[in-house]
């Protein structure tokens, strides 16, 4: 068996140098080969979310994204316009709130042309499994579908609104409705630029 | 003692006699943090098993080249590298699991189970024994985390591996998916484990 290296200054510096170098290069290599699949996975997630929240569309919504930054929001918001046979049929808008039980809740809300919610998909969240995560569930999302936020009060019942909160996760529900409201405000502000073309 | 029997012991000790979670109480941070469902526990267990196996292999191979006084930083660099690899691979190929485990993946680095095995076993034993040790310990950890996750999921969400067996509105013990429930469930499982495993003294 080989003799254990002695702990001289040179030996210690050299062995750490070799180990960090080897680690650095191998990490760089793995990073290189996972870069593309990582981007693909992200894109696939986005496309999937778009398909669930929007009515049928035939344009490449992902590449036609418009990014705006409302003054009231901390982060920028993405709007994906959807067209079917050249007609503007609606748009998916990302909304977020930092008032979730564990911070950021990011959702994508699909609106039809007349401003009604078509469907909602949760993009990012760190809520409590089994409580807050139920916001992904059909039972919770159902109450938002086909609602026009200008007539439907996007607030939890407890706060005087019309949204039924998740059991034991009122905070999550508040964040969710706040994010939806934000998405709606942006949609109303922005939809004209596409809707105008429909009448021509 | 017979050599093959010795190696069998070497493998089995991680699952039973020296189970990292139920007996040695190592790696409590992921064991309590991510086990809100059986699937999360399983995912965390497998990720840890992989890092443990790779770090044991590498440490065992280069042990004679690492001067004694810098062995801990050397081990940590090796472990951290494999954890980063796991993180990148999960993000690229299993994004669903990556999202579920979240912050707990980078925290595998500070799982004392992995450093503990590198220090106490791999740096003193040959490659084959180190692999068996890592497999045994990793499996013991995975089984423990899955059991803990399953217990908490059954009691807290009324489901197992996301398959629900109670109605949508049923009242479940929400306590068990919250942090205090993790401690309670772990304590009872540890007691049960001690009861069921044969004593050797």
UniProtKB/TrEMBL annotation, chain B:
Localization: Cell membrane; Endomembrane system
At the top level of its lineage, which domain of life is listed? Bacteria
**One Pfam family recorded for the sequence:** Rnf-Nqr
Q: Does the keyword Membrane apply?
A: yes
Cite the InterPro entries for this sequence.
NqrDE/RnfAE, RnfE
- CC terms in the record's Gene Ontology section: endomembrane system; plasma membrane
Work out whether the entry's keyword set contains Membrane: yes
Q: How does it sit in the membrane?
A: Multi-pass membrane protein
Q: What are the protein's UniProt keywords?
A: Cell membrane, Electron transport, Membrane, Translocase, Transmembrane, Transmembrane helix, Transport
Regions that span the bilayer: 21-39, 45-62, 74-94, 100-118, 130-150, 170-193
The EC number(s) given in the record are 7.-.-.-
Q: What GO biological process terms are annotated to this protein in UniProt?
A: electron transport chain
Query: If you read the UniProt record, what top EC class would you report for this enzyme, in one word?
Result: translocase
Primary localization: membrane
Kindly state the subunit structure of this protein: The complex is composed of six subunits: RnfA, RnfB, RnfC, RnfD, RnfE and RnfG.
> What the protein does?
Part of a membrane-bound complex that couples electron transfer with translocation of ions across the membrane.
- What family is reported? Belongs to the NqrDE/RnfAE family.
Q: Which PANTHER family match?
A: ELECTRON TRANSPORT COMPLEX PROTEIN RNFE, ION-TRANSLOCATING OXIDOREDUCTASE COMPLEX SUBUNIT E
Instruction: From the Swiss-Prot or TrEMBL record, give the protein name.
Output: Ion-translocating oxidoreductase complex subunit E
Q: Which organism is it from?
A: Ulvibacterium marinum
